[in-house]
Amino acid sequence: MEKESDGQHINNVLVYDQTNSLQDNSVIAAKGLMKISTDKQF
């Protein structure tokens, strides 16, 4: 993952979801936006 200088835009994103013990899932994205939710949980 590469973060842009503004601290919010990210490139070459790979997210792993390991909540299911029977299988791992992943999401691949070329770019995205990272920011805090309004309830500050994520």
Describe this structure in words.
The protein has 42 residues and is mainly β. The chain has one domain. The protein contains no helices and three strands. It has strands spanning 2-3, 9-17, 25-33. It has a three-stranded antiparallel beta sheet, with no helix packed on it. The radius of gyration is 13 Å and the shape is flat. The mean pLDDT is 89.
Looking at this protein, list some descriptive labels:
42 residues; mainly beta
Structure, briefly:
It contains no helices and 3 strands.
Rg, please? 13 Å
Order of helices and strands: EEE
Give the averaged pLDDT, no decimals: 89
How can the largest sheet be summarized?
3 strands, antiparallel
The first-to-last residue Cα distance is: 18 Å
Total discrete domains: 1
Percent range of helical residues: under 10%
| Number of DSSP strand runs | 3
Q: What are the low-pLDDT stretches, counting only 5+ consecutive residues below 50?
A: none
The shape is flat
Strand order of the largest sheet: 1-2-3
Fraction in beta strands: over 45%
Helix/strand structural class: mainly beta
Helix tally equals 0
Summarize the SSE layout with pairings.
Blueprint (H helix, E strand, L loop, with lengths): L1 E2 L5 E9 L7 E9 L9
Antiparallel strand pairs: 1-2, 2-3
